[in-house]
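FIELD: query
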Amino acid sequence: MDNISRMESAPAVSADMEWCDEFGLGSEEWTTKVEIKIRNVPEHVCHPEKMERLVSSFCDAQTHSFDAMKKEYYICGFARSIESIPKYKYLKIKYGTENGVRIKFFMLNLEATPYVDLEKDVVANEKDPELYEDPDVVREAFESQVRLQRIAEGAGSKAKRVRCAV
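FIELD: result
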């Protein structure tokens, strides 16, 4: 495995301070707001931690929701670009057995779209340092905008949604 492949598959961790240029091999700016619709998600894997791990190499997830009727999981977050998000991804779930473990594979279809602010308000237009520094504020902003978008599309009234805790 070459260095680039190892770097792309390496997990990212949050840092409490800004890294200086003498550390690391490079950096990426993830500033594109995206909504990822993930299809064919079994209900028993509807867990934010599992879904965050699934998208962590291309999206910093901020909010999560699951539509149990459609078996669709929605993640809103930041990505490098819409094009950087794959069209499908395998989810591996580990089950314990008497002799070890069994890995079950699920092929999930991903559809990424630009995240659109339905209501252009003061928070969306002004650069508020709290909005970008406090993860709870970011989640709340995404969640309220996703709810408004679902209401506007009429999807919220027809399908049963199960809210996954973040």
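FIELD: remark
DSSP finds six helices and six strands in the chain.
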